[in-house]
Design goal:
single chain; 28% helix; 6-stranded antiparallel sheet; 4 helices; LamG-like jellyroll fold domain-containing protein; transmembrane helix; 26% strand; 12 strands; Jelly Rolls
């Protein structure tokens, strides 16, 4: 048999398979075209953005220059104000400084200068200035009176003023803004006197006396001034109020503590606030009680924290 002259059979692919193959190939080509077009669009947009930014930065118009200068000025002012705030926080005196932090004896006389030139030795208080309700400040101090004694003169606790003691009363005669004294013992009852000078140098009635102060108990005394209203709080309870007849007199004198012989007892945490404390702030001071750790301002303080603390409930029934 001769197989050489036989032609190979003509095998044809079914039409359905051809159409499916062509459709799949077209889909692949369409997908490639879509991806390429997306990449080209993204590249064109990025190129346009860079060109626009570069064009704006390289522009030489008056508006561009003015906008740049404004941005520089705003940035400079922001950084300058931030620097001033930071420096003020670390360098400016506190609005509510502790004049004495901790405990000293009642005979440890101290004077705290209000002159900034003396450096760290000064404990400067900020006087009330341009308050919405008028002049205002607050003083807080803890007292432990051991014994009233038989003195016929006032016993000096502290004042912001002078040290020109009257030979008869032992009250400083020029400035008390304010001044706190123990009234002479006449009936065995401790009485505190708060003096606040006014614009009238001859005014002798601008003082408050608070009687029945307990002895051998810690007592918190707060002197609060708001406009012309002078209040005295004992252990968080208002115990005396005086509407001053004239404008209270502030002064730039030093702060004097336990001078002129002082008093028989101890003093703790004398503090100044340049605003009138709220009743919540006052009660918070009373809540934490006195600091019986020896103060760095006293080498004689040897307290161990064994003193009895007087609750504000005790004094509330005295009103």
């Amino acid at each position: 048999m001769n197989f050489q002259n036989m032609a190979p059979p003509d095998i044809k692919m079914p039409e359905s398979i051809q159409q499916a193959s062509e459709s799949f190939g077209n889909s692949i080509n369409d997908m490639k075209s879509s991806v390429n077009n997306s990449l080209d669009d993204f590249s064109n947009q990025a190129t346009a953005g860079v060109g626009a930014s570069s064009s704006f930065l390289q522009s030489n118009t008056i508006i561009a220059k003015f906008a740049f200068i404004i941005l520089v000025i705003i940035g400079f002012l922001f950084l300058m104000n931030l620097g001033v705030i930071i420096l003020g926080y670390f360098l400016n005196p506190s609005d509510s400084p502790f004049i004495i932090r901790g405990l000293i004896t009642g005979q440890t006389g101290k004077t705290f200068s209000q002159d900034p030139s003396v450096g760290n030795k000064a404990k400067i208080v900020k006087l009330s200035n341009n308050e919405r309700t008028g002049m205002e400040f607050t003083w807080s101090v803890w007292l432990f009176i051991n014994d009233l004694g038989s003195t016929s003169k006032h016993q000096f606790i502290f004042n912001k003023g002078d040290l020109n003691f009257d030979s008869v009363t032992n009250i400083t005669s020029v400035n008390n803004g304010p001044g706190l004294y123990i009234v002479p013992n006449t009936n065995g009852v401790a009485t505190l006197k708060v003096i606040m000078n006014t614009a009238n140098a001859n005014d002798t009635k601008s003082n408050i006396e608070v009687k029945d102060i307990p002895v051998r108990k810690w007592v918190n005394v707060i002197i609060r001034l708001e406009n012309t209203m002078l209040d005295v709080y004992i252990n968080g309870t208002i115990s005396g109020r005086l509407n001053l007849p004239l404008v209270p007199k502030q002064n730039y004198n030093d702060i004097n503590v336990c001078q002129g012989g002082g008093f028989n007892g101890n003093l703790s945490d004398l503090r100044y606030f340049n605003h009138a404390l709220s009743i919540i702030e006052i009660n918070n001071i009373v809540y934490w009680g006195p600091n019986t750790s020896p103060s760095s301002d006293s080498v004689d303080a040897t307290a161990t924290g064994s003193y009895n603390y007087l609750s504000s409930v005790w004094y509330s029934n005295k009103l």
